[in-house]
Amino acid sequence: MRRVRVAFASLCLALAVPVAPAVAATAGGSPHELAADGSALDLRSVALGQVDRELVLTVRARSRIDPAELAAGDGRLCASLAGDGGSSRLCVERRAGAWALSSGSRTVEGQVTQPAAGTLVIRVLPSALGLRPAALRWSVTVTPASCSPASAAQTGGVAPGSAGGAPVPSQAPCGSRAPRGEGTYAGRVWRAQVTGCTRDGAGQVRRGARRKEVALTYDDGPSPYTRPLLATLDRLGVPATFFMIGQQVPSRAPLLRRMLASGHELANHSWNHANLGGGGPGASSQLQRTSAAIRRATGFTPCLFRPPYGSTGADLISRANAQGMTSVIWSADPLDWRTPGTDSIVARVLSQTGPGGIILGHDGGGSRTQSLAAAPRIIAGLRARGYRFVTVSRLLGYDERIALRR
Ligand code: ZN
Which of 1, 142, 197, 386 has its CA 20 to 30 A from that of 17? Predict the structure, then answer.
């Protein structure tokens, strides 16, 4: 009986855990409807919008889009994108039974899906096309493989304009273009600003899932050591998570914005590094002031909290939870705050880190020259063992919350 009751209690707890839905930020993307032009791959509508960080181009044809019609070398569908933030021509082709994206002679990372017979959806990061956030003019052309090269040359791969409802021309054009004729549509690459993270209801964690991923974390900043540490991390392409002391935040707002823009995560480490292990309303106030300072400086609301000195308790965990934060301890502690020497810091981290590891370090609170010198060696050592570096939010499987701004 007792066992049943325990199981029931755990079930209630599991059900009570609030899980915030991950809602994607979207902008643009209304379809432009097109009159029939009678071509072999007649475009019915096109739409370009942005979902979180990705541009999404949705192309609908009047009939099924046969992948063979876009076989590399014979047919292709291309979008011309031009604006103040750069210009690019993105093309979709079928290569060896798979969709491929290219820009000029360059392969572009992205995703192409065919959710319905007559629909292609292309997702790509603007940065992969060299596009920065700005206004954009765009158009789409499609030249199916069934076009003879002569016919394509004659029409320039583009259908002549045809008024809505007009009879299909007796000699069907080869390619199809949106808009009809020579124009372009107005669009935009939006600036994707990270405003927070969507967490699960976890109270406290010491490590992530046991994948080949680890998270570097730095406490007690921001400080004069933060900037040189960022230079190293950014040069090596490693995102880190910074647990910050709230009272040090307001004077370093531009640095925090840069950290966020480079993909680092900002997190809460109390207002003045008091020992909050006993909980109580004072602890709530410390957490609240710090999150507010980070939000004021950057627009980002942290979803992670690390208790100063690792000193924690049930009340503190639930107070952090009530403010939308998971408490994060660590799985590897090099005791770098004691300045034991760079070799010792590196050796301790490498010996204590396994899959899903959360590595503690410090970028404030004293001389951090050794911690900074250890960073590239820790990164090289763990990469050599096949680990990938992610933020703590990513390690825990949390989604970013993104707002799209002009
Ligand atoms: Zn600390």
Answer: 1
Going from the Cα of 269 to the center of ligand 1, the distance in angstroms, rounded, reads: 7
Exactly one of 264, 269, 273, 362 is catalytic; name it.
Answer: 362
- Tell me, in angstroms, the distance from the centre of ligand 1 to residue 280's CA: 19
Say if CB 251 and CB 245 are below 8 A apart: no
Task: Convert the pLDDT of each residue in 313-370 to its tens digit.
Answer: 999 999 999 999 999 999 999 999 999 999 999 999 999 999 999 999 999 999 999 9
Instruction: Please state the pTM of the whole predicted model.
Output: 0.77
Residue 185, strand partner residues: 138
Cβ contacts of 134 within 8 Å, gap of 6 or more: 83, 84, 85, 86, 188, 189
Q: What percent of the chain clears pLDDT 90, i.e. is strictly above it?
A: 80
Return the pLDDT at 156. 43
Interval between CA 219 and ligand 1 midpoint (Å): 5
Ligand 1 centroid – CA 249 distance (Å): 14
Decide if 219 is catalytic: yes
Q: Which of 228, 320, 339 is nearest to 280 (CA)?
A: 320
Q: Is 200 a catalytic residue?
A: no
Give me the catalytic one of 219, 220, 336, 363. 219
- Domains in the chain and their CATH numbers? 31-189 (2.60.40), 199-405 (3.20.20.370)
The pLDDT tens digits of the residues spanning 52-77 come to: 999 999 999 999 999 999 998 888 99
Tokens linked to 200: 């699960």
pLDDT beyond 50 at 161: no
**What CA–CA distance (Å, rounded) separates 225 from 75?**
55
First to last CA, the chain: 60
What is the rounded CA–CA span in Å between residue 343 and residue 377?
A: 9
